[in-house]
Amino acid sequence: MSGAKTKAFVGIDAGTTGCTVMIFDERGIALGHGYEEYPCVSPNPGWSEQDVEAVWAGICSASRQAVAKANLPPEAYQSIGLSSQRGTFMMLDEQKRPLANSIVWNCGRALKYQQTMAEQILPEEHHLHTGMQLSPLWVAAKICWLRDNEPELFEKTRWFANGQEFFLHRLGAEEWVTDPASLTLNGMMEIRKLDWSDRILSICGITRDRLPPVGIPSGVAGVVSKAASEATGFPVGVTLCRGAGDQQCAAIGAGVIKQGMAEFTVGTSGVMVAHLDSLDRIKGRNLWWGGHGVPHAWNIEGAAFSLGACLKWWRNNLGRNELEESDRIGRSPYSIMVEQAGKSPPGAKGLIFHSFLSSQVTPYYDAASRGGFLGVGLYHDRQDMIRALLEGCSHEMKMVVDSFQSDIDGGISDFRLTGGGTKSNGFVQIMTDIIGKPSRVTRERECTVLGAAILGAFGSGAFRSIDEAVDAMVKVEAEFEPNRKNENLYTDQHEIYRGLYEAIAGGGQYQRLADFAARYH
Questions:
Q1: Are 280 and 403 in contact, with CB atoms under 8 Å apart?
Q2: Of 16, 61, 10, 67, nearest in space to 39 by CA
Q3: How far apart are CA 150 and CA 364, in angstroms?
Q4: Residue 285: what pLDDT?
Q5: Using DSSP, how many helices (H) and how many strands (E) does the chain show?
Q6: Residue 139 CA to chain centroid, in angstroms?
Q7: Contact assessment for residue 499 and residue 492, using Cβ atoms and an 8 Å cutoff
Q8: How many other C-beta atoms can be found within 10 angstroms of the C-beta atom of residue 149?
Q9: CB proximity list for 260: less than 8 A, separation 6 or greater
């Protein structure tokens, strides 16, 4: 058992495909880890929902695992910070009980509401007002869809809530408050005020009294209740703090708290976040802007919504060989996939994979687009397909990185890669080669959950500032340089990758395919 003098800070990341819980000491060293997977369901093509109770059960299971592994005395626990999915929302009754499954951030049910909303607010005006491009993937469009397509559920809903405030409530929080860093993918915030936008709420047909008020990340929300203690294993009375949205937590966990710094989280989705001293630093419109996990600050973001999901899709549907090898030698199937990809040459013999399995986000914001292998020949084998999959994900990342370089005054000078997808050096090298920019990898790859723990540590008073907490708990472990031998190859491949996308999308074929799937599902 660790000594009683150890101070323990808990981070909870209630993600899309599973919950990670980690316990850290004051130097950012992991003391305990737990993970529990849970599913999304798709009752119709393009839809994505989640059983709220299944997510809560996952949080509890992962928490018990982490507590057991840490094996700390109760007095060691100082705080809990929460990271949650942004853009996933719940419909709750007066007692804050779920009335239905949550609607997940990548759900495409409201595709037609982009045009509906554009009739009430011009897309350019919406971007400047909310920080977000007008998109049917944000919460606002889905609330409009509920209003028009499920009016009974819409009327019954007392609270439209995010995971941040709901799961803190289940843990015992007395405060029913959200924060700007958890609201980015809602598309319902007035960006300069970092508060709800009454104009957008009016378009949705709701008022502020159906939403939690907006506080700040790291704010104290309450303490762990007896019931939550029994469910999770955390001691009664541990301080609960608002963390932030998952990507803002990842930025803090990667140390991205100064101008010129950015990190790209390679998880189920891939999201890149850069720190903004001021909204006046923005000089383009390819990205979106939100509240940072640092209170009263902003960040700027872009995304590739299916990066890790592409690898999981392969594992679940085509990965029998990798799964069998994983069982045989006791290694992750993903590490075996990367090893197999290494047996195919850079460029995968001309095979290209488009990674848009749940839409293309930055820079095209094309909700109807889908993925696919292009250029398949009889001479391609399984190793080429896996290499093309990894390269395709990296090319979509490059489109995002290029948007940051063009849209921010001064660009990006310190680029970091984080998340589960960076656990393989082979995959990190492919990303670095294709992006064409040096990258740094932090010691703790699970930056999202570390960022949540840092916000809890600061909020509970263990550190005087977020800067001090980051200095103590975040360390860079490795640096990668692009392999210049592959520079011309990947430049040519990227032009083809992007050109093929534009040819298909520009001809309206993705939309035709989406309409076809809706008719014949």
A1: no
A2: 16
A3: 30
A4: 92
A5: 18, 21
A6: 15
A7: no
A8: 11
A9: 275, 410, 411, 412, 413, 414
DSSP letter string, 384-428: HHHHHHHHHHHHHHHHHHHHHHHHBTT--SEEEEESGGGS-HHHH
CA distance 485 to 433: 9
Q: Who's near 197: CB < 8 A, 6+ residues apart?
A: 129, 130, 188, 189, 190
pLDDT at residue 388 in the model:
98
Q: Determine the Cα–Cα distance for residues 365 and 357; give it in Å rounded to an integer.
A: 13
For 39-63, the DSSP string reads --B-SSTT--EE-HHHHHHHHHHHH
The total number of residues shown for the chain amounts to 521
Considering only CA atoms, which of 112, 151, 155, 156 is closest in space to residue 134? 112
For residue 317, give the nearest of 331, 303, 335, 337 by alpha carbon: 337
Amino acid at 282: I
| 301/184 Cα distance (integer angstroms) | 10
Rounded CA-CA distance 74/472 in Å is 23
Sites in the chain below the pLDDT cut of 70 = 1-4
DSSP 434-501: HHTS-EEEES-S-HHHHHHHHHHHHHTTSSSSHHHHHHHH--EEEEE---GGGHHHHHHHHHHHHHHH
Per the structure block, which two tokens stand in for 320?
């029998």
Tokens standing for residue 515:
């309409």
- Asked if 271 contacts 277 with a C-beta cutoff of 8 angstroms, the reply is no
Write down the pLDDT at residue 31: 98
- How far apart are the C-alpha atoms of 292 and 184, rounded to whole Å? 9
| Dist CA 363 CA 497 (whole Å) | 14
Give the angle 430-436-442 at the CA atoms, nearest 5°. Answer: 65
Q: Residue 63 to residues 34, 58, 80, 342, 512: CA-CA distances in angstroms?
A: 6, 8, 11, 36, 45
Q: Give the type of residue at 384.
A: D
Peptide bond preceding 363 in cis form (omega within 30 of 0): yes
Secondary structure letter of residue 211 according to DSSP = S
